[in-house]
Amino acid sequence: MDITSSDLHAKLKSFFGFDTFKGLQEEIIMHLIGGGNAFVLMPTGGGKSLCYQLPALCMEGTAIVISPLIALMKNQVDAIRGFVQNKEGIAHFLNSSLSKTQVQLVKENLTEGITKLLYVAPESLTKEENIAFLKTLKISFYAIDEAHCISEWGHDFRPEYRRIHEIIERIGKAPVIALTATATPKVQSDIQKNLGMMDAKVFKSSFNRPNLYYEIRDKSNPKRDIVRFIKDNPGKSGIIYCLSRKKVEELAQLLNMNGIKALPYHAGLDAATRSHNQDAFLMEEIDVIVATIAFGMGIDKPDVRFVIHYDIPKSLEGYYQETGRAGRDGAEGKCIAFYSYKDIQKLEKFMQGKPISEQEIGKQLLLDVVSYAETNQCRRKILLNYFGEDFTDCNCGACDNCLVPKVQFDGKTQMCLVMELILSLKENFKAEYLADILSGVSNSVIKSYNHHKHPLFGAGKGKGPRFWAAVIRQGLVLHLLDKDIERYGLIFVTPEGMKFYKTPYTIMLTEDRTFVDGEDDDDSDALISPKHVPAGGGGDPVLLAMLKDVRKSVSRKVNLPAWIVFSDQSLEDMSIMYPVTIDELKTCQGVGEGKARKFGREFISLIAKYVKENDILRPDDFVVRTAANKSAVKVFIIQSIDRKIPFEDIARAKDMEMEELITELESIVNSGTRINIDYYIRQHLDEDKMDEIYEYFKEEAQSDSVSDALKELGPDFEEEEVRLVRIKFISELGN
Q: Domain range for residue 698?
């Protein structure tokens, strides 16, 4: 079909109102119109959809657009109908949401040649009746949107996508354009192989989105942080992503209770509610949508000003695509993710029971997420490197690590040591295994290979596995090392790395950040400072030191460890919020009615005096309100324990995992309520073990840290056992 560049520009202006194309759009469209296959890698907001919408409107026949989500199809069909006046039938979708009458209308429009774009889900495409019908049409080309769904290494694998090539062959050959905003070189190769389009011309735009700011925060109190952030950015549109439907509902409710207009979006809602909530967000009736990952694919809202990940995503592709929904108009876009390693462990648990190959792929993708979250390097550099693109600037100026750079050191010696180990092991092991050997971690896997006797075992034991993992990761970014994805991420030395190994030179590396074990999800109402206070500190340092002195004095009087009186987090909260009454004190983290009344008087007296003497304006107008039904859950748990009901039955009654129940119990005793769980502990723990854990917390513990306890107690003790005895200990001695 002969269409000149000037014809194409005229059509662009006529249909879409644009004077010029963005980036590679014109080249891609001309290639497709000329009959060539195309593979398009273009970041969110780069204008992918125009690459198949415009040629479909220009070419003879109907373009089949294969798309994964009904919401995405509806959104794009509405958009096309808006561009082409008085032609309702110009674009249609064919999926399970249509009635028989609606399907008949779609087929009539297609047969009459009115419809230029037909959106279908892969599930609909594979139905025999649809294949038979589509064979009767003239197909201009096939567009596979969100093509990363084809690859098992992609972040949103859909088995139905693997059959697309076979179905296209049956319907009738035509050019194919595959498009995605997220694909590593491995995923790209997988997609092209599966679609039988290794000959396709690859169009790859830069993955760099210079207007986006990336930040990872400790997940110590994410709800409080999120409310504070949104209050500091009034009237701005944002998306918050959670991994579970339950968390989506809870968070949307919490935001509304705090005066923030928000709605939930997840697959558990009926289609009408999902559609209403999506439209309310697009029409700016609400400011925030709280969603699972199903939300946002193809949603054309250019002015999303922030994307928050309440839970860290399962892959960097998912993270990149979801953050890409911010700032599509080129203006401000803040991307904040809350991270704790506990979330990673939960995601690993979800993989259990899946085929081994699937588990290996999932674990490798998670390791990349951990590396990104915990790194001290430029986040933009790490992200772009992951997608096979180099970012050469030393400082991007728009990520937390570049704005607050960390101390660097010459890592020449350390990198050479890593390479020596990799080469001695014939390049057959993953990063975490190599890090364990260098730091001298003697686990069962290392012993099974006899590597605890390797000459380099413990050669870097002055530093822990986290340090050596960081060195390896930075070696990957510098292209001195690489990972064999086909063999689940085995690390090898590159030719460039071999040159460095033979003739070492100075390379500047950074040590990694340390993160908290997990969030403190205390559900009591909480006063908050209007200004953002970083996790793990940021309050009034003078007051904090004075509060610690009072705590020491109180702990001596009552003959209890200081951390039993009030935790460090509780004191930090007091130094931020300046509570001067018992009721205000109860709003601090880990302080409930019992603790406030038992230990609080001396603390609030000190704070009241300090506030008066230093003329401090207290942030008493900023309160995060939480749902009352949370208290109802706690009451149910306390009453059930009073009746000595097995924990498994309590958890089942409230649709909770055992881990969630234990977290609730910790919250109950940390807030000062006394409960007696002896009946459960004695059934499930050996008495000697229980005594040893109890004695540790009474005599040795410097804090209530479970990880410290496990290190001291040794490998025979499990985390759940330690947590249960700690609950008993705090309840008996502190409450």
A: 628-734
